[in-house]
Structure formats: structure tokens, C-alpha cells
């Protein structure tokens, strides 16, 4: 007999195409994961996985089992969520994934949610836009704040939140005198802290510099913009941050100045991403109410 957990394991293997990563996604050790797959093959009397020294893909039988099993897995997740939600409309833990440029915004959202719904706790996880989408689809996150562009609308419900605009947090000693703005071309000549190349924000920033025909002087790379904020406050380098993050800072950091980045002015749409099966769940309804989004 095929168990739901068997289908979850096989679906994870089909998605990640790697035994160790699939095992991690399922929350078990790789040996336990591999043993379960082999036992399933033994019970069915058919090979489900093509193996060599590493994963080579699923057999035809494995592909058919995944195609038929994924809807069952997703349906069970939805049912479990509905049952859990029925216990309390406004309680539980909301797992929220956010891109680094939206981390301060997420902090404000979590505070507002806690004030309005004291029985809801929030876990905030930062990651790349791709990682957030994968975790949402896997069921490891309940909602995400990420770029609207490139969102998988077949799997995710997308609601626009705000436009990400960019400013430069710059040590006063490095800033151009007598101006509240700086061009991207001018910024390229300053020592800059940028996000890691794998982040979508970094790809956006790199594309702007490329379009204006300059190569930025990179002082440091990070996966957390707060590190760049600290470096700017110490006078070491300037950091490109979104306007919403600048607004979230308690006060202007001593020894720094915020400069609007122009020529060009760049905007990217940030959205709330929710798995399609969970878009009407009570926890999500509470989140949408706090965000003041149309129902």
C-alpha cells in the first residue's frame, strides 16, 4: 500500500533531483530517505528511480506515480491547514519568507500583526526570491514578500504591495556636496556594498550599472543589507538600499546621508506571494487585513 509520506518523498526527489536536498526538504536524514524510497520500490515490485553513482531521474513508473500523487499531497496539506485553522481563526504561527530588501518592511508587518492578532506569532526567514518561491510551493512557508516579476502564478497567488525604489546610504565624507541626489554613474565610483550575485536585487542593480555604461567599485558583498548599513555608518562604504528600508531606520545614522538615486529612477514591484491552495486560509486573511489589501 502506498502511503502519503511515500508520495511526499518521491515528489521531493522529483523536484530537487538530488537525494540529500530532497531528504533535507522532507526533514529526514539521507539514509532514512533512501531506505524509504527503496522499500516503496520493493512493495510495488518496480523501479521508481534511475540510479548510477548519483540520481539520474525517475523511471516511467516513477513519473506516473508523481503525477498522480502530487495532487493528493497538496490536497492533504490544504485539508490539514483547514482543520488546524478551524481550531482558532486568529491564532497560530505564520511563516513569512522575505527578500533581504524587504526585511524592515516585514518587521513592521509582524509588529502590526501581533498588535492586531495577539495569538498569532510570526517567523521571518530571509532568502533569495527563488528560494522563497520554492519554500512556498514546498509548504515550508505560509506567505512571502518578494518581487512580483518572475512569480510563478500557476502555483502562487500574487498581490502587489509597494514599489521598491532605491537610495544610497552614504558616509557624509564620501557624498557629493550640496545635493540630495546621486546618479548611478556617480555612485559607481564610490566603494559600494551590494547584495550577493545570486540575489535578484543584485541582478537588478548590476543591470542598471550596465545600462548606464559603468562598472561599480565593489567594496563588499553580503546576503544581509544590515551589514552594509553598518559599514556605511562606520564610513567605510556606501550601500544601495530600498526607500522602504531607509524609512524603516529609526533615525538617520550619524555620519551618513541618504541620497536619492537618479538617472535612471528605478522601480520594481514588491508583492505578497501565497500558495494558491492557502490564499483563503484564516492566517492569510489576518495578514491581508493588516496589510489593508482588498479582499
Biggest sheet features? 10 strands, mixed
Number of helices: 11
**Rg over C-alpha atoms, rounded to the nearest angstrom:** 23 Å
End-to-end Cα distance, whole Å, is 42 Å
Shape: elongated
Short précis:
This protein has helices at 4-16, 19-26, 30-44, 60-87, 103-116, 129-138, 184-187, 200-211, 225-233, 243-248, 282-291, and strands at 49-51, 55-58, 92-98, 120-126, 143-147, 156-171, 181-183, 191-195, 217-222, 238-242, 256-262, 267-275. The protein has 295 residues and is of the alpha/beta class.
Topology record:
Blueprint (H helix, E strand, L loop, with lengths): L3 H13 L2 H8 L3 H15 L4 E3 L3 E4 L1 H28 L4 E7 L4 H14 L3 E7 L2 H10 L4 E5 L8 E16 L9 E3 H4 L3 E5 L4 H12 L5 E6 L2 H9 L4 E5 H6 L7 E7 L4 E9 L6 H10 L4
Features:
two-stranded antiparallel ribbon, D-Maltodextrin-Binding Protein, domain 2, 3 domains, alpha/beta, 44% helix, 295 residues, single chain, 11 helices, Arc Repressor Mutant, subunit A, 10-stranded mixed β-sheet
Describe the structure.
By secondary structure, the protein is α/β, with parallel strands linked by helices. The chain has 3 domains: 4-85, Orthogonal Bundle (Arc Repressor Mutant, subunit A), CATH 1.10.10; 88-162 and 269-291, Periplasmic binding protein-like II (D-Maltodextrin-Binding Protein, domain 2, 3-Layer(aba) Sandwich); 164-265, D-Maltodextrin-Binding Protein, domain 2, CATH 3.40.190.290. The protein has helices spanning 4-16, 19-26, 30-44, 60-87, 103-116, 129-138, 184-187, 200-211, 225-233, 243-248, 282-291; strands at residues 49-51, 55-58, 92-98, 120-126, 143-147, 156-171, 181-183, 191-195, 217-222, 238-242, 256-262, 267-275. Strands 3, 4, 5, 6, 7, 8, 9, 10, 11 and 12 form a 10-stranded mixed sheet that branches. A two-stranded antiparallel ribbon has the order 1-2. Strand 8 (191-195), helix 8 and strand 9 (217-222) form a beta-alpha-beta unit. Helix 2 (19-26) crosses helix 3.
Amino acid at each position: 500500500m502506498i502511503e502519503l509520506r511515500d508520495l511526499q518523498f518521491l515528489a521531493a526527489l522529483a523536484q530537487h533531483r538530488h537525494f540529500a536536498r530532497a531528504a533535507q526538504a522532507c526533514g529526514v536524514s539521507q539514509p532514512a530517505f533512501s531506505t524509504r524510497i527503496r522499500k516503496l520500490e520493493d512493495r510495488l515490485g518496480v523501479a521508481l528511480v534511475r540510479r548510477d553513482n548519483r540520481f539520474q531521474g525517475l523511471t516511467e513508473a516513477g513519473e506516473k506515480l508523481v503525477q498522480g500523487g502530487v495532487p493528493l499531497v497538496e490536497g492533504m496539506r490544504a485539508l490539514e491547514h483547514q482543520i488546524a485553522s478551524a481550531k482558532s481563526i486568529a491564532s497560530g504561527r505564520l511563516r513569512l519568507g522575505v527578500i533581504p530588501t524587504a526585511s524592515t518592511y516585514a518587521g513592521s508587518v509582524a509588529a502590526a500583526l501581533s498588535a492586531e492578532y495577539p495569538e498569532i506569532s510570526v517567523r521571518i526567514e530571509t532568502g533569495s526570491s527563488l528560494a522563497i518561491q520554492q519554500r512556498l510551493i514546498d509548504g515550508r512557508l505560509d506567505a512571502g514578500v518578494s518581487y512580483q516579476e518572475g512569480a510563478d502564478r500557476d502555483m502562487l497567488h500574487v498581490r502587489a504591495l509597494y514599489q521598491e525604489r532605491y537610495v544610497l546610504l552614504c558616509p557624509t565624507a564620501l557624498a557629493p556636496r550640496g545635493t540630495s541626489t546621486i546618479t548611478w554613474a556617480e555612485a559607481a565610483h564610490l566603494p559600494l556594498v551590494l547584495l550577493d550575485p545570486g540575489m535578484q536585487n543584485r541582478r537588478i542593480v548590476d543591470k542598471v550599472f550596465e545600462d548606464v555604461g559603468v562598472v561599480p567599485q565593489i567594496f563588499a558583498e553580503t546576503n544581509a543589507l544590515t551589514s552594509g548599513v553598518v559599514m556605511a555608518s562606520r564610513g567605510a562604504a556606501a550601500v544601495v538600499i530600498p526607500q522602504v528600508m531607509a524609512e524603516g531606520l529609526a533615525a538617520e545614522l550619524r555620519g551618513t546621508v541618504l541620497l536619492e538615486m537618479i538617472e535612471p529612477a528605478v522601480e520594481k514591484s514588491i508583492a505578497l506571494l501565497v500558495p494558491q491552495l492557502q490564499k483563503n486560509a484564516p492566517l492569510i486573511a489576518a495578514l491581508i487585513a493588516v496589510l489593508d489589501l482588498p479582499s
